[in-house]
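In response to reviewer comment 3 from the previous cycle, which asked for concrete evidence that the modeling workflow produces usable outputs, we include below a single protein chain processed end to end. The sequence was submitted unchanged, and the resulting structure tokens are shown without manual editing.
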Amino acid sequence: MHLPEDYSTMEAEIKAERGAPMAKSSNQKLKVLHLVRIFLEKTDEEHRISIKELIDGLARYGIAAERKSLYDDIEALKLWGMDILYSKEKPAGFYLDRWDFEMPELKLLVDAVQSSKFITEKKSFQLIKKLESLASNHEAKQLQRQVYVTNRIKTMNESIYYNVDKIHEAISANVQIKYQYFEWTVDKQMRARKNGEPYIISPWALTWDDENYYMIGFDEDAELVKHYRVDKMQKIQLLEAERAGKEAFEDFDVARFAKRTFGMFGGQIRQVTLECDNGLVGTILDRFGSDVILQKVDSGHFRISQEVTVSGQFYGWLVGLGSGIKIIDPDDIAEEFQQRLAEIMKGYR
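The workflow returned the following structure tokens.
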């Protein structure tokens, strides 16, 4: 549950009224606000609080409270919108029943943050701490344990969050952007491509694919739709020039683009027919989506005809699936694949 926007203002105004050390009457003004805090931080369905514990909790803030007045305060909070319930099951007591997120949802969000390569370790920790604040202190401990479930590789570029914000700003303002594009060297240093010459691109979309964040835009000089890793972009500046490529993006489908582009590597877009073992149905559906048409060949094989971006990554995907898949059409793509395989084999002779 979120506090109302004026919660902090109310507390600040009350404190401002005090001036000198808080008197008993001023303490009483803050009582209901501290009650809200106690219910938010200390209670959930599994952790209830008794009237005596509420009295003790308020006493830690220097606030004296009587049982009858607390019952009245709880009723007022319920009228205000807090879903405070009472359970007779031991341990009996009051608790805040409704949260904006359920625990399974928060765990899912934590795992998504932790598993995202484009979020640095530092930012992952900060985001997870903020997610913890959406649960009670008791439930937050479950999220803390989730943080250390795996040891995943993370990006080293902290500026990605500001890059995303700049790109969204440019898309909203319908303007082009200028930036430098970097690549990693063997000594783990970022080196600008094109000797630091800036890229000028019209950004049209952002997509998260293959565990990385990509900007999809239009290169006016090349008259092509291109994509760039957001974590490899630096020194992004918004230009005054209006975005180009509107016609190319009128019917542009980001999902279709990502589906046909293997590892987000560029290449020629071709219609390719593949013959696959039946055991690869799940792999094909994962790659191309459930709407792909499977044509039965015989009792053990099926075919698909799919638009793909032909690249080294596409061929690598085929190699990974071994003899269970082969290119049927077009012939030139099948021949190029054979030549690549032959080149690879030369290195092992």
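Confidence is low (pLDDT under 50) at residues 17-23, 146-151. We consider this sufficient to address the reviewer's concern, and the full set will be provided in the supplementary archive.
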